Amino acid sequence: MSGFLKVFSKKRPETQAPSEIGLPTSVTHNYHVSKNLETGQLEGLPESWLSFIDSQITKKEKDDNPYAAVQAIKYYNYSIKKKVNEPFKPLFTEDVIEEESKEIEYNLGHIQDVPTEWQEPKANDVSEPTTPPKKAPPVPPKKSKSTKEKAKAMSEALDEALQNLRIEGFTDITCQPHDGGESPILRKKEGGDKLTDEEVYNELSRICHPGDPHRRFERSKELGAGASGTVFIASDTTTNQRVAVKDIDLSKQPRKELILNEVKVMKDFNHDNLVNFLDAYLAEDHLWVIMELLDGGPLTDVVTETVMKEGQIAAVCKEVLKAISFLHTKGIIHRDIKSDNVLLGMDGTVKVTDFGFCANIIGDEKRQTMVGTPYWMAPEVVTRKQYGKKVDIWSLGIMAIEMIEGEPPYLKETPFRALYLIAANGRPQIKSWEKLSPNFKHFLNCCLQVDVDKRASAEELLQHPFLENCMELHTLTPLIRAAQKILRKGF
């Protein structure tokens, strides 16, 4: 511990930190957006918006569903601005989602003549099974929305959208206060519970394993690197166990207290179907987070290189649902369920990777473009409606499509266009629909309901008859080996 004390003695409390400026309040803009009754187009949007939309969406698509276009560009802008290198993705809860929504909605514009017609996402004519399987989860009646409620929703959506943009060549929009006066900017008051760097280091030293990690772990293959640190494989010399290690340079992290919070939570979140936290070490300014190593690699390799049987898909879905159910009982929403975040053991073990432990690993940029990768994203995430735990169920359904077809819907589209299609179409088409068994069709129907009230929960899906015909997990091993051979991978 004396080594740690030397490190901590160098840390001094921040005494003269500058005040933090909060978000503007009572901000309005004098944009007047209307829907042309003859052309069906939205008029009054900034030219930079229209140019970007026109480059990604056809005129007919924009005319048919202007609501989806506005929602897509709003969320796309937010996601691009939020694309930062973090040591861990945040643990999403209902409170976090509410804060995120407020961030998207701040700096609203005053809009007149708002269009009152918009379309709900469609189901793309995917029918229910002709013979309902046994033990199907109950489906509550769909709640209808009045015309007034739809008009209000559209008005709010456009209000949210009219904020300053910085998207691939967009020019900033100069906003004038609507009433000619200045909008007040309030100072954000510092909370009394914010920890200083020295307090963070002291708390980390208390929860971390004492000793020098360099002596216990022998580094081998590096898996990837990013601004927040390096991920590598190491051998534990005391147990001969191979582990994954994330080396985080704390000196480069502006919000060290968030890292402390994530480590605390991970220590308490152990489950058979999660890639579990094993230990942590603090070596001067470097935090080593030790995690389980899954030597079969990501499910992505299997789905892109091999053809899975329904029983194997059912087995993977069941294991992932166990992890999702566990997280949901803890009030946690994963929000990024996809094959990239499901890791496999060579024996067929299936585990959901923790909340971004492997974030920033070099990989397919197409699949890592945005926060909450858009191709797996539920419609309500884009449209900010009834946003909660069931977003993970939608993503599971999209991942099931991955296992059928080798990739998620819209993967060949740009991220913005994918967002538009999700908002406009809702449920994607499934090319191999007619070849699926009735139970599998019904399972997908339960996952991919646009109406959140009709979408099944994780607990309900764990009782679904599709999962009664799971193949043994070890049947995944030949697929893993075949994929690794093709991709020339291996741990």
UniProtKB/TrEMBL annotation:
It comes from the Eukaryota. One of its GO terms (molecular function) is protein serine/threonine kinase activity. ATP binds at residue 246. Its EC number is 2.7.11.1. Residues 130-141 have a biased composition (Pro residues). It is found in: Cytoplasm. Keywords: ATP-binding, Cytoplasm, Kinase, Nucleotide-binding, Serine/threonine-protein kinase, Transferase. GO terms for cellular component: cytoplasm. Residues 217-467 form the Protein kinase domain. Pfam families: PBD, Pkinase. Residues 111-153 are annotated as: Disordered. This is non-specific serine/threonine protein kinase. It comes from Gryllus longicercus.
